[in-house]
Amino acid sequence: MEQIFESIINSYLETKVGQSDQFLNDDLSKQLREIILLLFQENQLKAAGIGNNAKFLENKLIRSDFIYWLDRNHNNVYENDFFDIMDEFVKYLNRTCYSGITGYEFHFAYYDKGSFYKRHLDQFRDNQNRAFSMIMYLNENWMASDGGELCIYHENSSQIISPLNGRCVFFKSNELEHEVLLSYNPRMSVTGWFKTN
Ligand SMILES: O=C(O)CCC(=O)C(=O)O
Ligand SMILES: [Fe+2]
């Protein structure tokens, strides 16, 4: 894994967006995808970012994905395999970049056909503990015509990233605004944040 971590950090340092196209192996990616599909069937995914009713409408205009938080207490082998990789990555980050990461949170995300997430920053105004964002895509055979690209806004340009199976994207949470473009097919991912105190 070290080599993959290194390539993510090198691309992050070079371009502000760390990337690897083989972060999750096909087997783990498939198992995580199956968990999401089961949660979807069982109606356990929750519309993302719901507050009260007024907020609900407002939210729907900003994002239309459904989420489910991963948790070691679920005692799911594959969620735990995923967390093991994240624990390794945190150690790597803290050892090589002195990043001082003390925690993380990850959720599954399901963007049904016609879903999107408008331009935003991942750090909340009243809480700065999200240091880095990371997204891992689980979409086999994703085609350009499926849409659902991640668009990252740099100072003078924008960068379009297709949500391909096994790919991960890593960037600083308070720095880069980004958006999920309209998805024409169900789009699945694990998204999360590395936190500092
Ligand atoms: O799925 C993606 O490509 C980005 C998701 C995102 O921006 C978020 O959940 O904050
Ligand atoms: Fe985001």
From TrEMBL:
It comes from the Bacteria. InterPro entries: HIF_prolyl_hydroxylases, Oxoglu/Fe-dep_dioxygenase_dom, Pro_4_hyd_alph, Pro_4_hyd_alph_FE2OG_OXY. Transmembrane segments: none annotated. GO terms for molecular function: ferrous iron binding; L-ascorbic acid binding; peptidyl-proline dioxygenase activity. Residues 102-196 form the Fe2OG dioxygenase domain. One of its GO terms (biological process) is cellular response to hypoxia. Coiled coil: none annotated. Keywords: Dioxygenase, Iron, Metal-binding, Oxidoreductase, Vitamin C. Its cofactor is L-ascorbate. This is Proline hydroxylase. It comes from Portibacter lacus.
